[in-house]
């Protein structure tokens, strides 16, 4: 993917200072950029199903691990954060239904929605929990080793990666 084909460029401004979470956020940005490339090449129809599947599976897996981290660290604002996650999943589900059931084009709506949501969510609520964990002295080193291994198992069991690579 060349720089001309990047819709959302990752920068250090999006870091939550937890490598595992940053890596997962980068992958969500990559999925968004893959959709952009497909649409710009007029190949959206060929890859949209795989991209939607990858996006939903990856996001669910990422949220599960992020929420687990917050529970283990006893983050006090976990409930509102989980509500934000639920809202995003609902919105993604609605976009998927719009495309799959109603056969309506969703490319530009999805690109705009996801870019805005990722920026606002990462720089808003994700940086708040990251800062709170750091202030509370929660060490993420052990959690990161465990989460990386668990994420690999979760990803393999969902087979989303195979679909994503083929898209």
Automatic annotation (TrEMBL):
Record Gene3D superfamilies: Hemerythrin-like (1.20.120.50)
Keywords from the UniProt entry: Iron, Metal-binding, Oxygen transport, Transport
Keyword Transmembrane recorded: no
Domain Hemerythrin-like residue range list: 18-129
Domain of life: Bacteria
Cited Pfam families: Hemerythrin
Transmembrane annotation, as ranges: none
Coiled-coil ranges (or none): none
GO MF annotation list: metal ion binding; oxygen carrier activity
Family of the protein in this entry: Belongs to the hemerythrin family.
InterPro entries (alphabetical): Haemerythrin_Fe_BS, Hemerythrin, Hemerythrin-like, Hemerythrin-like_sf, Hemerythrin_metal-bd
Organism listed in the record: Sideroxydans lithotrophicus (strain ES-1)
Alphabetized PANTHER family for the sequence: BACTERIOHEMERYTHRIN
Protein name (database record): Hemerythrin-like metal-binding protein
């Amino acid at each position: 993917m060349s720089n001309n084909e990047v819709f959302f460029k990752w920068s250090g401004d999006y870091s939550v200072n937890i490598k595992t979470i940053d890596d997962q956020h980068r992958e969500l940005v990559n999925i968004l950029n893959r959709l952009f490339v497909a649409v710009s090449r007029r190949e959206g129809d060929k890859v949209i199903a795989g991209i939607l599947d990858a996006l939903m599976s990856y996001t669910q897996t990422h949220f599960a691990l992020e929420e687990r981290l917050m529970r283990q660290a006893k983050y006090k604002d976990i409930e509102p954060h989980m509500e934000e996650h639920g809202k995003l999943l609902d919105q993604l589900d609605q976009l998927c239904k719009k495309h799959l059931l109603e056969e309506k084009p969703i490319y530009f709506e999805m690109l705009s929605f996801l870019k805005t949501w990722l920026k606002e969510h990462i720089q808003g609520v994700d940086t708040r929990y990251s800062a709170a964990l750091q202030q509370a002295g929660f060490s993420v080193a052990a959690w990161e080793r465990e989460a990386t291994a668990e994420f690999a198992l979760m990803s393999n069991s969902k087979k989303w990666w195979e679909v994503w690579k083929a898209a």
